[in-house]
Design a protein that fits this description.
Radius of gyration: 19 Å
Structural class: alpha/beta
Mean pLDDT: 85
Strand content: 15-25%
CATH class: Alpha Beta
CATH superfamily: P-loop containing nucleotide triphosphate hydrolases
Order of helices and strands: HEHEHEEHEEEEH
Largest sheet: 6 strands, parallel
Helix content: 25-40%
Number of domains: 1
Number of helices: 5
CATH topology: Rossmann fold
Shape: globular
């Protein structure tokens, strides 16, 4: 194998498994994602997370150098410090899902799993966290694209419900998906 071949194989990007944790506001999405990250990490997995939002807000800080670089027309702007790396890449509103999430495959390629909080419109695997005090019925009652409802409340309207209270078992099931 030549040096060029070795370099090319090192650049090969695998598709990191991605699971979306969805649910209504105040259903416990953030809490579940954080508990899963802690448990999966304890079990020896390397996990990345993405927070999906529908809100249009500036992620970079207006007036800072990185923001000025982007405003000047840079196709992407990175920030590199001794403890953190960030990238700001403007994307077209109509960009397809595979292209959008492919960027994270590059950044998180050494991870075993990417957990995404939110994004009901994804075609990737979705788990819905649901509590009956937040809503009468889970999204999964009318959305067959949601694979599993995670809840400790009684749920009659969906085919698959995993208990919320046993995080170790839940993490094991998530990895097996």
């Amino acid at each position: 194998m030549t040096d060029a071949d070795r370099h090319e194989s090192q650049l090969a990007i695998r598709k990191v498994p991605r699971i979306h944790i969805v649910g209504r506001k105040n259903s416990g999405k953030t809490t579940l994602v954080c508990e899963l990250v802690r448990e999966l990490t304890r079990q020896g997995h390397k996990v990345a997370t993405i927070k999906h939002t529908h809100h249009d807000h500036e992620l970079d800080t207006p007036g800072k150098d990185s923001h000025q670089h982007r405003e000047s027309g840079a196709a992407g702007v990175g920030i590199l410090s001794s403890q953190m790396t960030a990238a700001f890449v403007p994307v077209p509103r109509d960009e397809d899902e595979d292209t959008r999430y492919a960027r994270f495959n590059i950044m998180f390629n050494d991870c075993d799993l990417i957990l995404v909080e939110g994004d009901l419109s994804t075609t990737a695997t979705k788990l819905e966290v649901w509590r009956n005090k937040v809503s009468d019925a889970p999204y999964a009652a009318s959305d067959a694209s949601i694979a599993v409802v995670v809840s400790d409340d009684a749920v009659d309207s969906v085919p698959v419900v995993w208990p919320r209270s046993n995080i170790s078992e839940l993490a094991r099931r998530v990895v097996a998906m």
